[in-house]
Structure formats: C-alpha cells, structure tokens
Amino acid sequence: MNSFFAMISRMKYIDRWGLMNNTKTENISEHSLEAAILAHALVNIANVRLHEDLDADKAAVIAMFHDAGEIITGDMPTPIKYYNPEIKNAYKAIEKVAEDRLIAMLPEDLREIYRPVISNEDKVLEKYVKAADKLSALIKCVEEVRMGNNEFLKAKEATEQAIADMNLPALDIFMKECMPAYYLTLDELG
C-alpha cells in the first residue's frame, strides 16, 4: 500500500510550540508552508541581489517536507532537542529513521525522487531552509508577543540571536527589508 501522501496529510495534526502557552496554535503543515514561502524568498534574494545561482523552487519543496518526520516523532521542543550533544545526536538518528520510514511508504519508483527533499541532501540549500525555519519561528514569536503573550519574549530574543548568528547575507537582507512589516497591523500593511 502506498500510504505516503495520506501520512503527509497528517502534518496538520501535529502542533508546534508544545511547551508554550499559545494564543493561536500552529501545526507543522502551516509552519511548513510558511517555511517554503520564506525559503523561496531567501533563495530568490540571494540570486537577484547577491548573484547566486540557486534553485528557489527546490528550496521551497525541501522546506515543505523539512518537518515531515515529525508526523512520526512529534514536535520535539528546541530546548530539549538541543539540550546536550547526546540528545541532539539521538534525535538526529530518530529523525533519520522517521524520514526513511516515510520514504518507504512511497511507491518504489518514486522513492528516489522524494528522498533528496525529505532528507534534505542539498547542503547548499539546507542553510536557506534552516534560515526559513528560524524566520518562521521568529514570525510566530512576533505574532504572539503582539497579542500580549509575553511567554514568547525569551523565545523571540533567542530566535533573533540565532538568526543573527547564521551569517547568511540573504537572511540579513530579509531581516532589514521585510521583517519590519510583520510588526504592522493589517491597516498599516495596506
């Protein structure tokens, strides 16, 4: 039975930010779409402004699947996932098993098409997808803080620092030119 796509559709049932008091829950399906949009934007910024020659569409597809393994593992909170090297390495091994399990759910003739995007085997695009993932987290923190949820203040600060530490020029451009709009109201955006 080819159950891959039915399993992927279950991304909408896995909530993120499980340790945090959220004003609005966010699932990995919503997050993955936002990460895909942001990864596409970051690569296009790199291509246009920094004269790179990268595949923005592929970056978007990798971002769409970057948390697919969480259908099997659930969403592990970042402070736990990166608490120490042993936990980080163990979680990476668990993620690999989950990715392999998902790939095995595909028809055999499609597995090698999906493996590179589910396992993110493109090391150049990986940094853009990670940057998009962090941007999505920052956007969530900004939205929560704007709603008066101070529970996200420290997460916002930590995420801003993680973004600054990435040293990715396209990300810096996005932060300077696009991120301020996320602090505006709908009327101010228009």
Q: Helices and strands in order, then pairings?
A:
Elements: H1 4-8, H2 28-49, H3 56-65, H4 70-73, H5 78-81, H6 85-104, H7 111-118, H8 123-146, H9 153-165, H10 169-177, H11 186-189
Q: What do you see in this structure?
A:
The protein is mostly helical and 190 residues long. The protein has one domain: Hypothetical protein af1432, CATH 1.10.3210. It has helices at residues 4-8, 28-49, 56-65, 70-73, 78-81, 85-104, 111-118, 123-146, 153-165, 169-177, 186-189. α2 crosses α8, α3 packs across α8 and α8 (123-146) runs antiparallel to α9 (153-165). The N and C termini lie far apart (48 Å).
- CATH topology call: Hypothetical protein af1432
CATH architecture: Orthogonal Bundle
User: How would you sum up the global shape?
Assistant: globular
Number of domains: 1
Beta-strand content: under 5%
CATH homologous superfamily descriptor: Hypothetical protein af1432
Note the run of SSEs as H and E: HHHHHHHHHHH
Tell me the structural class. Answer: mainly alpha
Poorly predicted ranges: none
Average pLDDT, rounded to a whole number, is 93
Q: Strand count, sense and closure of the main sheet?
A: none
CATH class (first level) name:
Mainly Alpha
C-alpha end-to-end distance = 48 Å
How many helices in DSSP terms?
11
Radius of gyration: 17 Å
Helix percentage range: 55-70%
